[in-house]
Amino acid sequence: MSSYIYEEIYRNSTAIDIKDIFDKCKDQRKQVLITGRAGIGKSIFCRYAAYQWAEGQLWPHYELVVLIKLNSLTHLKYSLVDLMEKQYFPCENLSDSYKQYFTSLCGEGKVLWLLDGYDELPLNILHQPDSVLNTIYQTQHHILTSRPYAISLSYKTQVEIIGFTDANIAMYLNQSFEQPNENESESQNLLTYLKLNTKIWGIAHIPLHLKLICCLWRDNKISMVEDALEKQSLEVTMLYDKMVQSLCQQYLTEQKHTTICNLTRTSFREKCKKELEFFENVAFHAMKDFSAIIDPKVFDEVEKTIGWFISDYPQLFNIGILKSFNDKRIGSHVDVKKPHYFVYLSFQEFFAASYVVTGLRSGRPENSINFIKANKYDQRFRLLLSFVSGLLTIYNEEQPIQYFWDAILNAPLELVGLRHFDLIISCLEETRGSPSIHRRKEMIDYIVMWIKISVNMKENTILDYIKQALQRSYILANEISIQKNTYSVDAT
Fold first, then answer.
1. Is the backbone peptide bond immediately before 412 cis, with ω within 30 degrees of 0?
2. Residue 112: helix, strand or coil by DSSP?
3. Using CA atoms, how far apart are residues 297 and 308, in angstroms rounded to an integer?
4. What are phi and psi of 35, to 5 degrees?
5. In DSSP terms, which residues pair with 112 in a beta bridge?
6. Which fold is adopted by the domain 2-160?
7. Is 407 helix (H, G, I), strand (E, B) or coil?
8. How far is residue 41 CA from its own chain's centroid?
9. Beta strand 340-342 with 322-324: parallel, antiparallel or unpaired?
10. Model confidence band, residue 332 (pLDDT cutoffs 50, 70, 90)
11. Locate the NACHT domain: which residues (predicted)?
12. What is the domain partition of the chain in residue ranges?
């Protein structure tokens, strides 16, 4: 089954050209919701669309296209002009005549807004009824991007970005390895490696993951060494873990002038102990507040927790994991009075997961256990919990793994059961299919039960939900008992 998962996804989808994205909008005001998983390319879509418009290749009937990163909004009250001015002219004041001109364009429907990252909006703005987002939603032509779970707004026209096709992967690799100093055969070698390793081939369809894979391939963190194709497994968690290790090794070389040859995972984590502790604490504090923006007050809270001053370690901000909104290298000066953000939201989720795992592995796991119990059905923490499962698998320590799965499988439980089904699948996916995982048989039996229920129900929505969840799982695709029941799902 796993060999054709992506074929099935694409076969059941209808491709749409960007220029035709508004064709199904029947209302005079054009509004489209674009959803997609973490790292799937939503932000790239927005930048590409804005660039193509500027080049005269898209939507010429709009006199202006305004791209807004929603995670940059920090105040409750903005007008449309304020929003545009903050994003594009932060260091100068626009003239009144220009503001009036822009306002008139908005009123005449000649502006298209590209709103990127609804799921990254701070909660205080998200729940503000008279926010600028609601103004745009009610009055302006716009495209809004988000992860699927986060949307509370209603859209008649919805598009999902589902990732690279097989042909897209080959094209991306050719472009990634076309530099003069790179071997032309490298792209073909990596493509061969990906195709021979079904699990890695699956996650490579997500653009961000493929980018990370290319970086690791260049750094020889993954390669076609002897027995690698049979023994090497690369779950999403391990991909991020290797990428963090690669960034830290570069940092050790550049900042600490440390020899990094053949460092084990344990060794590099020991050498970067303070740095990793910092990122984990920052990520968790921000995630706890449902924020993708690291407010300056977060740094104050983190300093109290870790017991040392961030200003004593300015190099923390030059590793390539955190960025300031002024987007400049900080050098020897740490400006913690400015908002920061992780280069990818999924990096923030990875480090927050590492914080939870540190708690589970400590002598006082209660806080981590309570966090998991309280948030396990909150979709905003789904990727974080998957990372927790994957990191615990890497450490392979029995007691922390038991703490985690007991928190997932024991009360409180969701009443219906579908979210519990989805949670189990996403967390199992990061366990490398280990047969010794705590309460694994119980989970497999639960999944099989839901497959049988969905087949016997007349409600297609539940059956479709089960199919989509199973199609995303490569570990379960190779589980014999799942395969037998999946065939009956496909037959329907």
1. yes
2. strand
3. 15
4. -115, 165
5. 65, 141
6. Rossmann fold (3.40.50)
7. helix
8. 10
9. antiparallel
10. very low
11. 30-121
12. 2-160, 166-270, 272-343, 363-491
Whether the pLDDT of residue 178 is over 50: the answer is yes
Which amino acid appears at position 477 of this protein?
A
Q: Which residue has the tokens 């102990």?
A: 273
Summarize pLDDT for 231-247 with one digit per residue, the tens: 455 789 999 999 898 88
Residues 168-181: what's their mean pLDDT?
A: 84
Tokens coding 407: 């928190």
DSSP class of 399: H
Give the single-character DSSP code of 118: G
pTM over 0.85: no
Q: What is d(CA 471, CA 492) in angstroms, rounded to the nearest whole number?
A: 15
- Number of residues in the chain: 492
Give residue 242's Cα distance to chain centre.
16
Nearest by Cα to 218 from 186, 184, 253 = 186
> Please, are residues 327 and 299 in contact by the beta-carbon 8 Å criterion?
no
Distances (CA, A) of 167 to 352, 416, 430: 34, 40, 26
Mean pLDDT of the chain: 85
CA–CA dist 282, 351 (Å, integer): 8
Identify whether the C-beta of residue 172 lies closer than 8 Å to the C-beta of residue 4.
no
Beta bridge partners of 66: 113
d(CA 193, CA 6): 18
